[in-house]
Amino acid sequence: MLTIKANLRIYHKKGATRRLRKQNKCPAVIYNRGQEPSIPIILNQNDILHPEAVIQLYKNNVILLFIENQQPITVKVQELQYHPFKSKLIHIDFTRV
User: Fold this and answer.
1) pLDDT at position 50, please?
2) Long-range own/partner contacts, residues 34-39 (CB < 8 A, 24 or more apart)
3) Following DSSP, what letter does each residue of the chain receive, concatenated?
4) Of the candidates 48, 65, 86, 91, which lies 20 to 30 Å from 30 by C-alpha distance?
5) pTM, to two decimals
6) Rounded distance, CA 34 to CA 96, Å?
7) What is the extent of the structural domain holding 89?
């Protein structure tokens, strides 16, 4: 099982996500089942683009996210969005398992 560290994302607008990407971070969202609100998070590009991590992301395996000051969350990848010509992720959507 792949484990990734994440931080909560406070700012959600376009300019804030651009600044994150320039800092080698990747914005992501964890979608919950039912009425619970989604959780916006920030991931480090180096943690995600590690060769072992890429394989786990594409296999659609269960991933354990450690978010600061919270219980670990088990998720699956719903969607990956890559930059058109750079080898960077633009955004990831997770679904809680």
Assistant:
1) 82
2) 39/8, 39/67, 39/73
3) -EEEEEEE----SHHHHHHHHHTTEEEEEEEPSTTSPPEEEEEEHHHHSSHHHHHHHHTT--EEEEETTS--EEEEEEEEEE-SSSS-EEEEEEEE-
4) 86
5) 0.88
6) 11
7) 2-96
Contact 43, 4 (CB under 8 A): yes
**Six token digits for residue 86:** 């750079």
**Could you tell me which of 55, 54, 63 has the C-alpha nearest to residue 6?**
63
Per-residue pLDDT tens for 14-44?
A: 899 899 999 999 999 999 988 889 999 999 9
Give the pLDDT score at 73.
94
Q: Domain containing 17 — which CATH number? A: 2.40.240.10
For the chain, the domain total comes to 1
